[in-house]
Amino acid sequence: MEHLTGNTYFSPSKGPSIGGYLVKDQLLLIDTGLDDSSVRKAIRDFSDIDVAYIFNTHSHADHCGGNAYIQKQYTAHTFAPELEATFIEQPVLEPIYLYGSCPLTFMKNKYTMAKPSKVHQHLHTSGPFTIEFDGKPHRFQLLKLPGHSPNMMGIVTPDQIAFLGDALISDEAIEKHPLIFTYDVADHLKTLEQLEKLDAKGYIIAHGGYYTHIDHLIASNRNVLIRTQNYLIDRLHRGSYTIEELHAHITEVYRLEETPLQYSLNHSVIKAHLSTLEKQGKVSITVTAGNLKFTAEPGA
């Protein structure tokens, strides 16, 4: 990990960044990466420390995959947002919700199913949050950041460094993966509005690293979400289409090359966009000859 300021650290890895807050020999880890190896690398330069706490921003496997290893080696009292905590403790729920039934074999791997781990404290609300180090309280700030996942949370350290999970991704990641993963598009857009009001000294995004300003990232993340919705609405003004047909259209527009797992993830994203459009009254739904079809409403 690299030292940022005060007690705050982070690992600038190609995978999701792992954060740290170190007081004497007690360390709080902010997410634990994809697997045992990821978290071991993050803490290898610390000696004679106890990982006293874990804070998981959300339940995706690349953010909690090292939990089980850390909990075996250290005391590691673990915090996670409610609902996300259930997925961390029962990781098979992740491929189940992505697939919508008993998942296909290729969906059950370390990228979608972390090793199960214990969450000792479920977090319910944003706002001030106190963690004790060396017998003294240290005041953090919790941020509710839903959208990318159902109930993701960020955390701001007492050094005013904000760890934002996957609420934002870098411009480089957007260029590589323009169909950015989201569970609820409307919530994701509201989270971006919330981040515009956040005032911190620095910001860590899991897939992108450290930033001192995030206005340009908020704009680019918002633009790509809206762009995908516009592509879908434009297509639906031309007729009625199934989810599979819309998926094929988006694949062509973004020139996506998909493995079966990537197909499943992208399919989930397209359904998230359609769910938001349906809630906004912009699309109607019919069933024709065993096909669920979507059509744009007039004026949408």
From TrEMBL:
SMART domains assigned to the protein according to its UniProt record, in alphabetical order: Lactamase_B
Metallo-beta-lactamase domain location: 17-207
Name of the protein this chain belongs to: Glyoxylase-like metal-dependent hydrolase (Beta-lactamase superfamily II)
Organism name: Fusibacter tunisiensis
